[in-house]
Amino acid sequence: MRDSQGGQWAWASHGGSVYQAHRDVHVNHLPLPAPPGTDPASLAARRRQADAMADSARVEEARAAYADMLDAHRQVLGPDHDDTLDVLGSLAWCNEVLNAHVHALDQYVELHRRCTIRWGPRHKQTLWAQQGLMNTVGVTRGPAEACQLGADLLDGCRSTHGVAATPTLDAMRGYAWWLWSAGRATEARDLYADLYHALPTHHPARTAAEAEYHRWRAVVSYPRRMNRLPDRVRRYSRSAQQAYRDGYT
Asked: What phi, psi does 2 have (nearest 5°)?
């Protein structure tokens, strides 16, 4: 092609630069093409493939796939993009499932911080990240800190989803577990007692709430039922093991 003054332009054979014949050289470096598999469409396809691995219980393969594409998502889409946060959350979940709690904790901390800044502390994505954070904090730092996160999580789920919605019941179940781990089983029982008595008779969640309420009542009355049987007791008959759980031996 030609410029406005009649000079002939031609592409250089390397470096993406352009020169003008019979004139001074003008270097104009063009952006290099993205590496294969890192454009938005390819990243979306890779993410769907990793999701399929996770859904089919191939968690180790899914973790490797999510870890491999996380940096590309951050560079191409940005660290706060929906898809980037989705990959980060999926990677944290895989690490949690595979008992890599230290790595999961770092990822949940980052995810919760970014979701809070972007959507606020009561958004459903932020609450999901907080639930994962509660569980990994409980494993790595102890149940006391997990209970603090769990109390705030349950309040947030109640205000966002409702008192008997599935995310709220999931959060309550996890919070109750950490309460028991911290030696506060009576508080877990009271959570379900309040829920059970607050729901109408024909509410679809009332049966599950009643079952959990009676379960935690039994835990409070017979604390050995939640503990692993000692080796010596495991050699007993089933009736003797049950008697031990019920506190008779």
From this structure: -125, 150
Return d(Cα 189, Cα 212) in angstroms, integer.
Answer: 8
The Cα–Cα gap between 59 and 82 comes to 22
Each residue of 106-128: pLDDT tens digit? 999 999 999 999 999 999 999 99
pTM (two decimals): 0.77
**Domain extents in the chain:** 1-32, 184-249
CA distance 143 to 200: 33
| DSSP string for 136-155 | HHHHHH-HHHHHHHHHHHHH
Other beta carbons within 10 Å of 4: 5
Instruction: List, for residues 74-91, the tens digit of each pLDDT value.
Output: 999 999 999 999 999 999
